[in-house]
Write a structure and sequence with these properties.
Blueprint (H helix, E strand, L loop, with lengths): L4 E3 L3 E6 L6 E8 L7 E5 L2 E4 L5 E3 L5 E3 L4 E2 L3 H9 L5 E7 L11 H10 L1 E3 L6 E3 L4 E5 L2 E6 L4 E6 L6 H4 L2 E5 L2 H7 L5 E4 L3 H6 L11 E5 L2 E2 L10 H14 L5 E9 L3 H11 L2 H4 L3
Parallel strand pairs: 4-9, 11-19, 14-19, 16-17
Antiparallel strand pairs: 1-10, 2-3, 3-9, 4-5, 6-7, 7-8, 12-13, 13-19, 14-15, 17-18
Zinc ion binds next to helix 1 and helix 6.
């Protein structure tokens, strides 16, 4: 991919938010300024895609400031990043969350592709990883090493489920691989955690259609799944949405164990230190 692309025309999404449980509606429009990046527009206030605008990373990624916010931005951002889409304004028309749709990125991609994409003059920046680094935080581990491709390998280690412990997926980044291998991977949660999530005021829009529910080594609703290893593929989907805040792409191998939103952003901070990125 030599150039970024943008939308040919606006595209709308609506539905319940997975955490608020409330109806939300958004519009994604190509922006007027040809070198503009990705912005969220909430109540006429522009919130740019930058780390300082991240206000919460528990269970989802929330952007905003003291006055406005929008949560669960990661699945849409994962699509924009993976399809090299920029120069768009994301208007939050109703609600304060991106619609959950089916719990994956699939519907975002289908509708964006229907609206059509066109090349921009902008080119993505690609960073070559020159050395091997390991970053650990809580129970999450990120290992990066040189590669001539952008590869992401993800696995999960948990006492809660051997079903998840057996999952591992290697993804070689490209828009077509993303559409085929990652986009339809739905979000998941543990049955035993639902009560606590709900009592924290989150997960209110989750249901058996948009969340894979894991109970030990069993999946309660396997009929909604598309892939084998779907949970680690969804972790890769989320990771791509979170690292999109760096506004760069990589040649390097990323091995992730137990990634989550909080750890993903700490990893980004670590990665953006000059000596890591440029091999110091
Ligand atoms: Zn997710």
């Amino acid at each position: 991919m030599n150039h970024f692309q943008t939308l040919k025309k606006p595209v709308y999404f609506e539905g319940i938010g997975i955490h608020t449980g409330k109806f939300s509606k958004i519009k994604i429009s190509p922006s007027d300024i040809s070198n503009d990046d990705i912005n969220f527009i909430i109540n006429n206030k522009k919130i740019s895609l930058s780390f300082e605008n991240i206000v919460d990373t528990k269970l989802c990624t929330t952007l905003g400031n003291d006055f406005v916010k929008v949560s669960t931005v990661e699945h849409l951002l994962s699509v924009l990043f993976s399809l090299f889409i920029t120069n768009v304004d994301i208007y939050i028309i109703k609600g304060n969350e991106i619609p959950a749709l089916d719990g994956s990125s699939k519907i975002f991609i289908e509708e964006i592709c229907k609206a059509g994409l066109k090349k921009t003059a902008l080119k993505p920046k690609i960073i070559n990883i020159k050395n091997t680094f390991i970053f650990k935080i809580n129970n999450s581990i990120y290992k990066i090493s040189p590669s001539n491709k952008f590869e992401i390998i993800c696995s999960i280690k948990t006492e809660k489920s051997n079903y998840l412990n057996k999952q591992k997926y290697k993804f070689v980044f490209s828009p077509s691989n993303y559409i085929r291998e990652i986009a339809a991977a739905k979000t998941f949660c543990f049955l035993q955690d639902i009560k606590e999530i709900l009592s924290s005021g989150k997960g209110l829009g989750g249901n058996l259609e948009n969340v894979i529910i894991i109970n030990g080594d069993e999946v309660l609703n396997p009929e909604i799944m598309t892939y084998k290893n779907e949970c680690v593929r969804h972790k890769i989907l989320d990771f791509l949405g979170d690292i999109s805040f760096m506004r760069v792409y990589f040649k390097g191998k990323f091995e992730l164990i137990n990634p989550n939103h909080y750890a993903n952003f700490k990893f980004c901070e670590y990665l953006l230190k000059e000596e890591v990125v440029y091999g110091g």
